[in-house]
Amino acid sequence: MIDELQRGDKVTTIGGLYGEVQDVHEDRVVLKIAENLKVEVAKSAVSGTRE
């Protein structure tokens, strides 16, 4: 699942953040968690996708 992440996917992190994937890098993803607020998290911190 982690290797298949792509822009636009809605995910949940192990820390409980809900976000939308904005960019995918080799070992991390950029998530939009609020309007005008993006964070970088390790791919391993993504616990799952959601609808």
How does this model look, in words?
The chain has 51 residues and is mainly β. It has a single domain, classed as SH3 type barrels, CATH 2.30.30.30. The protein is built from no helices and five strands. The protein has a five-stranded antiparallel sheet, with no helix packed on it. The mean pLDDT is 96.
Strand-pairing-aware structural class = mainly beta
Main pleated-sheet profile: 5 strands, antiparallel
- By DSSP (H or I, 4+ residues per run), the number of helices equals 0
Q: How far apart lie the N and C ends?
A: 14 Å
Report a brief summary of the structure:
The protein is mainly beta and 51 residues long.
Question: Which secondary structure elements does this structure contain, and how are they paired or packed?
Answer:
Layout: E1 10-13, E2 18-24, E3 28-34, E4 37-42, E5 46-50
Antiparallel strand pairs: 1-2, 1-5, 2-3, 3-4
